[in-house]
Specification:
Layout: H1 3-50, E1 53-54, E2 63-65, E3 68-71, H2 75-83, E4 87-91, E5 99-109, H3 114-126, E6 137-139, E7 148-155, E8 158-159, E9 166-172, E10 175-182, E11 187-189, E12 194-196, H4 199-208, E13 216-231, E14 234-247, E15 253-259, E16 265-266
Parallel strand pairs: 1-13
Antiparallel strand pairs: 2-12, 3-11, 3-14, 4-5, 5-10, 6-7, 7-8, 7-9, 9-10, 13-14, 14-15, 15-16
Helix pairs in contact: 1-4
Domain Regulatory protein YycH-like: 34-261
Pfam families: YycI
InterPro entries: YycI-like
Length: 281
């Protein structure tokens, strides 16, 4: 056999072996990292079970979202005051987050059937003569009670879980008698879209940061937007996992928020019966 031909064969084999080893070297850290993450998650799940923490089936699917900004202004209050019917009271706290309270001159009847009553209230809310930009709010059974029907403001990016974006419609004796409203004006993106953590990662973070106590259970969790901060006349929102945790003994429900970009805990909480908000800042 030609010696030069043998050299070429060895060279091709050598290159092939190097390519194979190179691929293995590149893949190994990723595989190890994936296995480590899986093992860590499995260990946390076992620890939660041992601590009598009940959690629903959790998805490990990731999503994406943006940092959002909304300029603080009072224009919406003036528009609402001139648009809606009823006695309108304007509340102007020092944080600039204006709200209005409206007492209906003529209460509006709703059905005594719970499901139909919700439909009646939604129909009332969506009428611009009744509620300013009412069709921008979606019903939240998690925050609502028998007499206080809570609606959260939605945007093209997602629902805002913040006190500054809520509508509370009060019902007494099967009649809408008043409502309380806060509104977030136009939101815009301030950074590129980023990947968010999964529901499973959010729960693991709560447990890791000791925010998920023993003898409790997660009764619901939602991915939406939460207030991060207020700066230079703008409110900044970011994606967050909103998690409701019930104490097995006291039955008290506490709301926790997990930053869906960084997995850190947004440090504020209230009982779910407190209609002000998770945020006190």
């Amino acid at each position: 056999m030609d010696f030069k031909r043998i050299q070429w064969i060895f060279l091709i084999v050598f290159i092939g072996i190097n390519i194979f080893l190179g691929i293995e070297v590149i893949q190994t850290p990723t595989l190890l990292s994936s296995n480590a993450t899986t093992n860590t998650g499995d260990n946390l799940q076992q620890e939660m079970i041992a601590d009598n923490i009940k959690i629903p089936h959790l998805s490990d699917k990731q999503s994406d979202g943006y940092y959002l900004a909304s300029k603080i202004n009072k224009k919406w209050v003036n528009k609402a005051q001139s648009q809606v019917s009823g006695e309108v009271s304007i509340n102007s706290p020092s944080d600039g987050e204006d709200s209005i309270s409206v007492s209906l001159t003529t209460p509006v009847a709703v059905s005594s059937n719970k499901k139909q009553a919700i439909e009646d209230i939604i129909s009332f809310k969506d009428n611009p003569k009744n509620v300013y930009e009412g069709d921008q709010y979606v019903y939240s059974p998690e925050y609502s009670s028998d007499n206080d029907y809570v609606f959260l403001q939605k945007t093209s990016y997602g629902v805002i879980y913040s006190r500054r974006s809520r509508l509370h419609i009060m019902v007494r004796n099967n009649k809408i008698v008043s409502y309380y409203q806060r509104y977030t004006d136009t939101v815009t993106t301030v950074r590129e879209r980023q990947t968010t953590i999964s529901a499973k990662e959010a729960i693991n973070s709560l447990y890791t940061y000791s925010e998920l106590p023993n003898n409790s259970k997660v009764i619901w969790m939602k991915l939406g937007y939460a207030k991060l901060t207020q700066v230079r006349g703008n409110v900044i929102f970011l994606p967050a996992w909103i998690v409701a945790i019930e104490n097995d003994t006291s039955k008290t429900v506490t709301i926790k928020r997990v930053n869906a970009f960084t997995s850190t805990i947004l440090q504020s909480q209230t009982n779910s019966s407190d209609k002000s908000d998770e945020e006190k800042s």
